[in-house]
Amino acid sequence: MAGRRITSLTFTYLLLIVAFISFTFPFFLLIVNSFKRNGEILENPFSLPASLDFSHFGDVIEKMNFLVTFKNTFLITLLSVLFILLFSAMAAYYIVRNSTSFNRTFFAILVASMIIPFQSLMIPLIYIYGSKLNLIETVPTTLLIVLYIGFGSAFSVFIYHGFIKSIPLELEEASLIDGCTRRQTFFKIVYPMLSPTSSTIAILNVLWIWNDYLLPSLILTNEKNFTMPIKMKVFNGTYMNNWELLIPAILMTVLPILVAYLFGQRYIIKGVMQGAIK
Amino acid sequence: MLAEKKRLNRLGNQLFFTGPTMIAFTIALLIPFVYGFYLTLMKMATPVSPPAFSGFENYRAAFSDSQFWDSLWLTVKYTGATIVFVNAIGFALAYLVTMGIRSQNFFRTALFTPNLIGGLVLGYIWQFIFVQSLPAVGENLGIELLRLGWLGDEHLAFWALVIVTIWQSAGYMMIIFIAGLISVPKDIIEASTIDGANAWQRLTKMTLPLMVPSFVVTVFLTLKNAFIVYDINFSLTEGGPYNSTLMISMHIVQKAFMETNYGVGQSEAIILFAIVAIVTGVQVYFSKKMEVEA
Amino acid sequence: MKKTFVSILIALLTVALAACGGSKSNDAAESSAAPSHSASASASASPSSSPEQDKVEIIMTNGKGEIASQWEQAAKDFMAANPNITVKAYSQAVGDTLSILDKLTASGETVTIAMMGPDQLLNKHKDFGIDLSNEKWNGDTSYGIRDESGKVVGFPFAIEGFGLVYNKKVVEKAVGGSFDPFSINTRDKLKELLDKMKASGVQYPVAYQTEAWSVSNHYSTQFLNQAADPNTVIAQLKEGKLDLASNAVWNGYYDTMDLLASKEYNKYGERPLGKYYDDAHLSVGKGESAILFNGNWAFDSLKAVAGDSFGFIPVPVDNNPDNPLNNKIQAGPTQSLVINNKATPAQQEAAKKFLNWIVYDQAGQDFLVNKSQIISAFKNNPNKVTNPLGAAIADAIAQDKTLPFTNNYIYGDDWFKLIGPEVQKYIVKKVSRADLAKFIQDYYTSKK
User: Fold this and answer.
1) Which residues of chain B neighbour C422 with C-beta distances below 8 Å?
2) What CATH superfamily classification does B58-288 receive?
3) Does C78 touch chain B (CB under 8 A)?
4) What CATH number labels C2-160+332-392?
5) Domain ranges (residues) in chain A
6) Å from B68 to nearest chain C CA?
7) A121/B33 CB distance under 8 A
8) pLDDT tens across C114-131, in order?
């Protein structure tokens, strides 16, 4: 019996190590090849770099106009997520607590909209906000953030809705009796209670917006507004990929998220789990 | 229900709480969706040319576009493959990291990492792997299957897409399954162990039926993501070789923007929406039914 | 950014705040969001209304993503020399879904100078440009792009050419001495050369990369050179008067392709399609293989691994050593600059100045050849590209050993998207040569 337990334990570890290697080796490749020249990269992608050559990072920072691009990506992500968190929680709260037929319909439409493929909105988006209203030219960043709030709201309201349903009414009733208004009750009592859910929603939205390519590529036309996934295309030549710059660029795009994840992994995993159970 | 007594008060709160979401949602989804439907009834050459009414002409063109149906069929195959593999592997991993081994938190963290990468970047990384890295391995170790790139063979390129999808989303599904597995009552499992059920029987007879709610969520997510996949397709295979991996979303983008056939592209997008709506609706309906029965 | 933050706040919270009074409806708040956007925007953009008449702003787009930084610098240098002209320079991110020109046009901008391939200029954008026939620079080049009526509508920005790129070292070792690429003027001589290389220990002398643009737009258009003016061949195709399956030149190029892609000589013969671009250049660069089909731009990849010298062999079509097709390589303009006829006369003048700046100003000449490493279409440009393949093209031009660049006579997007996949299917033998012939013929007859 003990022997079988040990073999099964060994087997479990073996499987997990195989999984671990297959799920993480691309990160290893990214790191080692960030320090190599094109020739060295193409020759053997798995070899360790002959020397620690940081010069590509300098090139990438310059060619991607990294500080500006990073700032754009960071602010667009931050503002979109903050607004999504605030507005979605407010909407979900009101929908749960005032279950009028109007609110139920609104919620149903929100949930149903989750299956609209983005491709079916792309052409109208350009048509309306580009050639009709010209917002793409005049206020691209604002437009992009508003669109993210709109696209993010369905899923976020849905998750908040599930969570708020499970909060007992008594607390709110007590606070209303104490003379707080509806709005005060929400911000002082309810919103703080939502924070675990908020962190889940924040994480999922950050991952989505930070990495998103298609929407910003349609909305942002001016180089100075570009986000990192768009700007990365400068290393994607007409005929070949300039790997010695593309790889460090990828690493630098992924790194902030990776670092944030390593610091907050406990909460992130917990958050995703909570999101799943609703 | 906490309804306000004064109507004016209620209207104020309604607008305060739901107004911002409603506006953003209207701008991002509602107007474009309705307008998009209107556009399918129009004929327009470029995004700036004035549209002219053309009835169902665009839909007729969409239905007779053979590449559209090829792409749709390919997308269905891809969806089938990813649903099976992503869920199977996600569940297996979840099972392994809830067995109570010491370093299970470490593995959970590591296996979730691929989720942090999305879209274009994901495709670039894997292009680097399929085009540069695996052939190097093949050449050095003499593995014939790996010596030449995978992305130029229609079957291998298809599986390359599936593999990348598994790599990216299996970790996420794993977390959802972990949440489900943790909530499986311990006493039921222990009782069955005493009754002499072996590990396989415990898994299939006891655990899996209790996991149906988790599967409803994960299958819905994989289904939806697979049907509208674009970024990986675009950055990994670009639809090649000879359009054999051109999936539906990418086909629509090409139709609309490369061939500048906005009306037909938009009609195909609407058809795609209808298909996704029906398929996910059916899936959720049947799995909810299963959930009740189980 | 702060402005953005504030305007979103205002846009989205006006509703809620205004609603406290309970008087405003949802719709009113929504429409109030739009003006607040445009108000902040119009303050920054509308230089046209400025009273100074001499100032002119032009927008120019660059379709070659790889020279984005040089393009921007050129704009700055040009502005420094012409202080009354403001240039906004945009570059295409390569592989982007929308071309930068379409994107800007769709958002309501008037692009003054647009860079585009000659095929785009003559097809998709044929109503875009102004007549440039009377520009001085026409005296220094013969490559100006002419429309059907013979007017010059495009400024030839970049000259490029292609053929069989070969690694001199490997080939010289195989033939045992110096090698003249123009001595390979029949298919049999090419085969003989490949066999010699195999005998000298090169397992796969060819590394044949098969991207759609290469096998279709470049390789498969070569047959158009069977007439002195490729347009006559196109006209025959459109009228359905040319039977490709029985056309000797058309078949000849595919016989040569079969040779290049065969398992015997091609490194990728077992699985000939794939993204082999990097690997093919790596192999030829290092000398593990010796020949690939590509243009002068291949040097960007070759130099990454080796400083060896490279050159071009003409692509042989048959076994007649006197056939000019076997003795020349293709070269021609691949990018042109076009001035928008919707731009104001002042903008058009400024744009013409920029074109002259490229041809006649030292800084412009330097930008084109030295900085961007582009082969100039202009005889008066004293600079030479350092790239050996570019130099080989320049030499071929000087010795009159070039053929028209057939890629400029087709509609590139169609060949890439429609015919490219068919040629790839032919390479993996999913369709027969007769099927391919029929496909190309049908394409042209349906285009009429």
Assistant:
1) 242
2) MetI-like (1.10.3720.10)
3) no
4) 3.40.190.10
5) 63-277
6) 14
7) yes
8) 999 888 888 888 889 999
B217 and A207 in contact by Cβ < 8 A? no
- Do residue A146 and residue B214 have CB atoms under 8 angstroms apart? no
Residues from chain C that touch B23, judged by Cβ atoms under 8 A, are: 11-12, 15, 26, 29-30, 33
Binned average pLDDT, 10 residues per bin, chain A of 278 residues: 69 90 89 83 80 82 85 94 93 88 89 80 83 82 93 89 82 82 85 83 87 86 84 68 82 87 80 64
Q: A-contacting residues of C 33-62, CB under 8 Å?
A: 34, 37-38, 40-42, 45
CB spacing of B19 vs C417 below 8 angstroms: no
**C333 neighbors C377 (Cβ within 8 angstroms):** yes
Instruction: Please state, in angstroms and rounded to a whole number, the distance separating the CA atoms of residues C279 and C375.
Output: 26
Q: What is the CATH number of domain A63-277?
A: 1.10.3720.10
Q: Looking at the domain covering C161-331+399-445, what would its CATH class be?
A: alpha beta
Q: What is the pLDDT of residues C295-348, one digit of tens each?
A: 988 887 787 666 668 999 999 999 999 999 999 999 999 899 999 999 999 999
Nearest Cα residue in chain C from A148 = C8
DSSP string, chain B: ----SSHHHHHHHHHHHHHHHHHHHIIIIIHHHHHHHHHHTEE-SSTTSPPEE-TTHHHHHHHT-HHHHHHHHHHHHHHHHHHHHHHHHHHHHHHHTTS--TTHHHHHHHHHGGGG--HHHHHHHHHIIIIIIHHHHHHHHT-HHHHS-STTSHHHHHHHHHHHHHHHHHHHHHHHHHHHHHTS-HHHHHHHHHTT--HHHIIIIIIHHHTHHHHHHHHHHHHHHHHT--HHIIIIITT-STTTT--HHHHHHIIIIIS--HHHHHHHHHHHHHHHHHHHHHHHHHHHHHHHH-
Check CB contact of A39 with chain C, cutoff 8 Å.
yes
Q: Which amino acid is at C419?
A: I
Q: How many CB pairs under 8 A join A and B?
A: 270
Q: CB neighbours of C66 closer than 8 A, spacing ≥ 6? A: A237, A238, C94, C300
Q: Which of A71, A137, A142 sits opposite C8 (nearest CB)?
A: A142
Q: In the predicted model, is pLDDT for residue C431 greater than 90?
A: yes
Tell me the domain boundaries of chain B: 1-40, 58-288
What are the domain boundaries of chain C? 2-160+332-392, 161-331+399-445
If you measure CA to CA, which chain A residue comes closest to C13?
Answer: A87
Q: Which residues of C touch B11 (CB under 8 A)?
A: 19, 22
Which of C3, C4, C30, C284 best probes binding to A when mutated, by most A CB atoms within 10 angstroms?
Answer: C4
Q: Is the Cβ pair B109, A269 closer than 8 Å?
A: yes
Compute the count of residue pairs across chains A and C with CB atoms less than 8 Å apart. Answer: 117
Contact assignment for B258 to C413 by CB distance below 8 Å:
yes
pLDDT tens per residue, range C252-298: 999 999 999 999 999 988 888 888 888 888 889 888 899 999 998 88
Q: Indicate the average pLDDT of chain C.
A: 83
Is the ipTM higher than 0.90? The answer is no
Beta strand pairing call for C56-62 and C85-91: parallel
Cα–Cα distance measured from residue C256 to residue C272, given in angstroms and rounded to the nearest whole number: 15
Q: HSE, CB side, 13 Å, CA atoms: give it for residue B114.
A: 28
Helices A101-113, B7-25: crossing angle, 10 deg rounding? 10
Report which of B227, B285, B215 is spatially closest to residue A276, judged by C-alpha positions. Answer: B215
- Of C13, C98, C274, nearest to B257 by CB-CB distance is C98
- Any chains having at least 3 CB pairs less than 8 A from chain A are B, C
List alpha helices for C274-322, DSSP H: 277-286, 299-302
